[in-house]
TrEMBL record:
This is Cytochrome P450 709B2. Its main location: membrane. Pfam families: p450. GO terms for biological process: lipid metabolic process. Residues 1-21 are annotated as: Disordered. It comes from Panicum virgatum (Blackwell switchgrass).
Length: 633
């Protein structure tokens, strides 16, 4: 921030503020704000103050609304063409009066102190302002925030400016990652999020992870989680994903907010209606059947038994399924997009977890960034070509109509709107396609992998499921239908239990867009709210004493009756932003498991290492080798 001072007509000093110190966004808006301050008083220039001034520059307001009481200082006027009289603290904290911020007439431009004194005074004022802002930001505000939370019974980590708690977290993660689990244990928290567990046992289920700006709160209570995720008013928004994740996902459903999100969801929703998904079951089963035929051939050649690393196989399978169901006949281009997205994900992962990450480096033309930009262009160009092709074909076939019965076709159809006005632009459609690939394939692939792990280590459940599949879907050669899949109650229960114990998404986050009352806890605007699904899914108070065990029977009366809390299973999230693809994923997982169970018995291979790891999604660190035995060699 820079300041200029000039003498005003009524002997007060004018402070010209050229930018807000904390936010470049605000500094763009708040250039050239002038305000007068009373002699001997100080006006620390917070980003909030600057933006409030900016917003009111040309209005003749007499007051700004005060928050958190009245600050000691008086802002007597804001200089615009017609300076309004302004009396306001415009500050959300109560600082003590500061002598070093006082402006005396001798410090003012044109005041009699001479050029050198003036420059020195100006520099001192700038330094003092800066120092004050830094003190407030780094010391006072975190202290006040922590106290405000403590008064409400929420404790947490002590604030440590600059270094935070990274070292402690790294040490805990390093210690945890060295441990592999017994196959009968499903408690991967010490490997994946040991710090959450340690801090929860120290501070309780809701605790402050940081009281800096913005503060962050871990929310481990179901009633609060329910309130946050069910909100429809925009009070709890998604957090800023950063450029790398944005490039991966695009501004699709997962990341959009408000009106944009509602518009996108209107267009995408019809594609995921159950009757439409049922039509995709054939494509899902056909992709799975191809993989299973290859396994059969390998097993038959090896005397009826073969070891397969199913994690990699399911990654390929789910990519094929999404390519076919999203793009129908253009699935080859879909696969190209998938491969580029996969590489982008590796880059994203490396960037996020890079310990020597320098802020802003994601914009520099480094080798990895150039590769990222190239891949982004490829994804965009390929998707654009597919969409153009589809639009042209639809135009030609105007008489027969329709854009196709795959996800893209259904989306384009919904996009056309009743009055022919397009609801989403081409770029937005492209971003939705990217979202399908990212959100839709890896999650389902890991769900299948973990289900195979649990069935491979629980042969009695495997046998019960096999019997159910043979009863409802028929023998190995019978085609798999969506109606038959809907009768697979035990398979559904096992999949829910898999999602509870090994849900691919272990944590989500929201940001309070305004001051909020969260089930009695006052949460200031900007607070990050971290919701650790994996920990909530192991809460014995909600799930019972056997929360740590594999017990699919807990879902025998359906997912909402598994606990006293109807929304306790959070794997697909809940509320308006819950997963749009959950029925798609469940259908795909059921079809695949049904086909496998009809052809093989299986067990987890001896060389498997039980080490769940969270690389954006939860997966076995070294894959899952499974010994498959042909049922009818
Ligand atoms: C086992 C499989 C899956 C799991 C565990 C899963 C999990 C989730 C979760 C937890 C969210 C909410 C994220 C948040 O709000 O922070 C979400 C949202 C979403 N998922 Fe899934 N998902 C799965 C499969 C799919 C599939 C197959 C698709 C599409 C083909 C898909 C598309 C989406 C989209 C578009 C959203 C954003 C919805 C919105 O905000 O309106 N997901 N998913």
């Amino acid at each position: 921030m820079t300041t200029n001072m000039s003498k005003s007509s009524d002997s007060r000093e004018t402070l010209l503020l050229r930018s807000a110190p904390e936010s470049s966004k605000i500094s763009q808006k708040a250039s050239e704000i002038s305000c007068e301050v009373a002699v001997g008083r100080a006006v620390p220039v917070t980003a909030k103050l600057a933006s409030q001034l900016s917003a009111r520059r040309n209005q003749s307001l007499s007051t700004l609304p005060a928050r958190d009481g009245v600050a000691e200082w008086l802002l007597v006027s804001v200089g615009t063409e017609q300076p309004p009289r302004l009396v306001s603290p415009a500050l959300s904290f109560r600082p003590a009066p500061l002598a070093f911020m006082s402006l005396t007439p001798g410090m003012a431009m044109g005041g009699g102190g001479g050029g050198v004194g003036l420059v020195a005074a100006a520099l001192a004022a700038v330094a003092a302002t800066w120092l004050w802002a830094a003190l407030v930001r780094l010391v006072w505000r975190p202290y006040a925030t922590a106290r405000a939370f403590a008064r409400q019974g929420v404790r947490g980590l002590p604030h440590r400016p600059f270094r935070g708690h990274d070292k402690e977290v790294k040490a805990m993660l390093a210690a945890g990652s060295g441990e592999t689990l017994d196959r009968g244990s499903h408690d991967f928290i010490p490997r994946v999020m040991p710090h959450y567990r340690a801090w929860m046992s120290r501070y309780g289920k809701v605790f402050l992870l940081g009281s800096g700006s913005p503060p962050s709160l871990c929310v481990g209570k179901f009633d609060m989680v329910n309130r946050i995720l069910s909100d429809r008013t925009g009070l709890y928004a998604k957090v800023n994903p950063g450029p790398v994740i944005l490039a991966l996902l695009g501004m699709g459903l997962v990341l959009t907010e408000g009106e944009d999100w509602a518009r996108h969801r209107r267009v995408v929703h019809p594609a995921f209606a159950m009757d439409k998904l049922k039509m995709m079951t054939g494509a899902m089963a056909a992709c799975a059947a191809e993989v299973i035929r290859a396994w059969e051939a390998r097993a038959a050649a090896a005397g009826g038994e073969v070891t397969v690393e199913v994690g990699e196989q399911f990654a390929e399978l789910t990519a094929d399924v999404i390519s076919h169901t999203a793009f129908g006949s253009s699935y080859r281009q879909g696969k190209e997009v998938f491969l580029a997205q996969r590489e982008l994900q590796v880059i994203a992962f490396t960037s996020i977890y890079n310990p020597s990450r320098v802020p802003g480096m994601q914009y520099a033309p480094t080798k990895s960034n150039m590769r990222r930009w190239k891949l982004e262009r490829k994804v965009r160009d390929t998707l654009m070509a597919v969409i153009d092709e589809r639009l042209a074909a639809a135009k030609e076939a105007a008489a027969t109509g329709g854009y196709g019965s795959d996800l893209l076709g259904l989306m384009l159809e919904a996009n056309a709107g009743e009055d022919g006005k397009r609801l989403m632009s081409m770029d937005e459609i492209i971003d939705e396609c990217k979202t399908f690939f990212f959100a839709g394939h890896e999650t389902t692939s890991h769900l299948l992998t973990w289900a195979m792990f649990l069935l491979g280590t629980h042969p009695e459940w495997q046998q019960r499921l096999r019997e159910e599949v043979l009863r409802e879907c028929g023998g190995a050669e019978a085609p798999i239908s969506a109606d038959a899949l809907s009768q697979l109650k035990l398979v559904t229960m096992v999949l829910y239990e898999t999602l509870r114990l090994y849900g691919p998404v272990t944590l989500t986050a929201r940001r309070a867009t305004a001051d909020a009352d969260l089930c009695g806890v006052k949460v200031p605007k900007g607070t990050s709210l971290l919701i650790p699904f994996a920990i909530l899914h192991r809460d014995e108070e909600v799930w019972g004493a056997d929360a740590g065990e594999f017990n699919p029977l807990r879902f025998r009366d359906g997912v909402r009756r598994a606990t006293a809390h109807p929304n306790a299973l959070l794997s697909f999230s809940i509320g308006p932003r819950s997963c749009i693809g959950q029925d798609f994923a469940m259908l795909e997982a059921k079809a695949t498991l049904a086909l496998i169970l009809r052809r093989f018995t299986f067990e987890v291979a001896p060389e498997y290492v039980h080490a769940p790891a969270d690389f954006l999604t939860l997966q076995p660190l070294q894959g899952l080798p499974v010994v498959l035995k042909l049922l009818d060699p």
